[in-house]
Specification:
Shape: globular
Number of strands: 10
Strand content: 5-15%
Helix content: 40-55%
Distance between the termini: 45 Å
Oligomer: single chain
Strand order of the largest sheet: 1-10-7-6-5-4-3-2
Radius of gyration: 21 Å
Structural class: alpha/beta
Number of helices: 10
Length: 307
């Protein structure tokens, strides 16, 4: 029998209460986005992120083999406590043209190498598309077993070429190709079967039907419940339903649409590590400021801390 005296009991009880309060408060979310400073100096870029209120950043232009610049970026952003959230690849790994497909896959490997070198949370691309004219466009084969198997092979190839230890390779979900939601992403994770494969979550990209639009709070909760252990970076935007004779969702500034940012921020704050939420696809600094103000307002109302 283990005997517990009053002092040790109170100590344990206090520790448990503290742990409970920390769990209730959640982790700080790292908000980030593009900046408009015209500079190549890593220190100036890092300071500018902090000046506009960001604690996460898209990776500045660099190549993995430029070790001097890579180290300068990593050092400068760490000094400002700004994490490098992601290195974007944004090419079609499933281009119908075999030569373009090979070149694109080589480029993604290079971008994964940069993410690992600079210590970014992830390198991110979409799976691609069999559309011959629009690299991210719809095609009937984008939901096929052929598409899924080819995507598994591509993800394994990128990871196995670099063998990243600090960064993850991720695929961003799209509304008309695999993965198109939490269940198909979970299936992809299991099939890729690599520890360095992670999840890049953009909840707007999985809202691809009226049902998901109406129930987007539940969709968001489902994404975090099923994919939470693998999520390493997220995108921030909003969706508005443009009323026409067919379904038309339009990306808008956060706060001008119907995405439940309370659910989004709550899910982010409950992840195992502080995770970046990156504003994207806006046109001006003023639009990014508006989006940031809205997210900060919702965070304050919801009790979510932004780093």
């Amino acid at each position: 029998m283990i005997r517990t005296n009053r002092r040790s009991f109170l100590t344990a009880a206090g520790a448990a209460a503290l742990a409970g309060s920390l769990r209730a408060a959640g982790r700080a979310v790292r908000l980030g986005g593009p900046i408009f400073l015209k500079s190549e100096d890593p220190a100036e870029l890092a300071r500018e992120h902090r000046r506009v209120g960001y604690s996460a950043a898209y990776c500045p232009q660099a190549k993995a083999d430029d070790t001097t610049r890579v180290r300068a970026i990593e050092k400068a952003f760490a000094a400002e406590s700004v994490i490098v959230a992601e290195v974007g690849a944004w090419v079609n790994m499933l281009d119908p043209d075999a030569e373009k497909r090979r070149a694109n896959l080589t480029y993604v490997v290079e971008r994964m190498a940069l993410a690992e070198a600079v210590g970014a949370r992830c390198c991110v691309d979409i799976a691609g598309s069999y559309n011959p004219t629009v690299w991210y466009g719809p095609n009937p084969k984008n939901l096929s077993a052929q598409f899924f198997d080819a995507t598994v092979d591509n993800c394994r190839h990128v990871i196995d070429e670099i063998k990243p230890k600090r960064s993850k390779f991720t695929i961003e979900a799209m509304g008309w190709s695999i993965p198109d939601g939490p269940d198909s992403y979970l299936k992809l994770i299991k099939a890729v079967d690599r520890a360095a494969f992670g999840v890049h979550l953009d909840v707007c990209n999985v809202i691809n039907s009226p049902e998901r639009f109406y129930r987007n709070s539940e969709v968001i909760d489902d994404c975090f419940r099923k994919l939470g252990p693998w999520i390493v970076s997220c995108h921030a935007k909003d969706l508005k339903w443009i009323v026409e004779l067919n379904v038309h969702f339009q990306e808008v500034i956060p706060g001008r649409g119907e995405i439940d940012y309370r659910a989004y921020l709550r899910g982010l704050s409950e992840l195992p590590v502080a995770t970046p939420l990156m504003l994207e696809h806006l046109k001006t600094a003023e639009e990014y400021d508006e989006g940031q103000r809205y997210i900060r307002k919702v965070a304050s109302e919801t009790g979510v801390t932004l780093a």
